UniProtKB/TrEMBL annotation:
The keyword Coiled coil is assigned to this record: yes
Organism: Chryseobacterium populi
Name of protein: RteC protein
Keyword Coiled coil attached: yes
UniProt cross-references to Pfam families, sorted A to Z: RteC (PF09357)
Length: 280
């Protein structure tokens, strides 16, 4: 079954890369990706209903780690479509527009998750209640779940896979809106120039830089871990004059890469070791 999941997540990654290379505007990109994800989810549902799950562990893995990623992307891209469809053309209004959207998002976060026991459970990385939250037919309506639970497909939803998807999507949206707000703030074009002839720039892929940022953040290598992921990524964006966009989204994709997940970090290690060997 895990091969089926990897194939689905790889298909999303490839489609996102293809659409990023296209000349479509952001609204048409979102429409394309929403349609693609809907069809993929329907196909995945059909295959799972036909074959079932191999075991309980496989069922939990799907509803905790696979479906929420796909559904989270659907929620994420749909929200971006709605936001960008009504964004102002006037440059003087657009910064306030994204600031307002961030406030709406923060309000949504408080509304959905501030008093949610499940949110605390998921964010803490616990697994002891996974059988309750991520298996079919385990919904306890006496707990006071949201009303839409009565409308979900009980053969393909646990209710909490949707809650997980919302958490993921809102995190991605926060990064997206923050990057949009940062992107429109003016920067000193002469900052970080070494001299008149040389300008520091990042010449590897954006994913490579995101790998490096996450490694520095997770290892507490900058300010003993107090700097925060957003501040570190903003620092690198300023240094290299690059817009990294939604780094959380990119990182989630890396987690489901086929083969080596930390390709760039492995490349750095191998390059340094070859250099040291040759320098002996």
């Amino acid at each position: 079954m895990k091969e089926l999941y990897k194939t689905a997540l790889l298909a999303i990654e490839n489609e996102e890369k293809n659409i990023a290379r296209s000349e479509k505007n952001v609204i048409n990109e979102m429409r394309h990706l929403i349609s693609f994800l809907q069809k993929l989810l329907i196909k995945l549902k059909s295959e799972i209903l036909a074959k079932g799950f191999n075991n309980t562990r496989d069922e939990i893995f799907f509803f905790k780690h696979v479906k929420p990623i796909i559904l989270g992307k659907l929620i994420y891209y749909n929200r971006i479509l709605r936001i960008e469809s009504c964004s102002p053309i006037n440059d003087y209004l657009i910064e306030n527009f994204y600031e307002d959207q961030l406030k709406i998002l923060d309000k949504d976060n408080r509304k959905y998750f501030q008093y949610s026991n499940f949110y605390k459970y998921y964010r803490s990385g616990r697994t002891d209640l996974d059988e309750k939250y991520f298996r079919l037919g385990q919904i306890d309506i006496l707990e006071g779940v949201n009303s839409y639970v009565f409308e979900i497909d009980s053969n393909f939803s646990t209710y909490y896979d949707y809650e997980t998807a919302k958490i993921i999507a809102l995190n991605w949206l926060h990064s997206y809106l923050s990057s949009k707000k940062t992107k429109i703030q003016p920067k000193d074009e002469n900052f970080f120039k070494v001299n008149d002839d040389i300008e520091i720039s990042w010449t590897e892929s954006k994913n490579a830089l995101i790998e490096l940022i996450y490694a520095l953040h997770i290892s507490n290598s900058i300010s003993n871990g107090r700097a925060g992921l957003t501040n570190i990524s903003k620092m690198f964006e300023d240094i290299f004059k690059v817009n990294l966009g939604d780094i959380h989204h990119a990182f989630y994709q890396m987690k489901y890469r086929a083969g080596t997940k930390t390709r760039y970090l492995h490349f750095l290690i191998n390059s340094l070791e070859r250099y040291m060997d040759n320098d002996l």
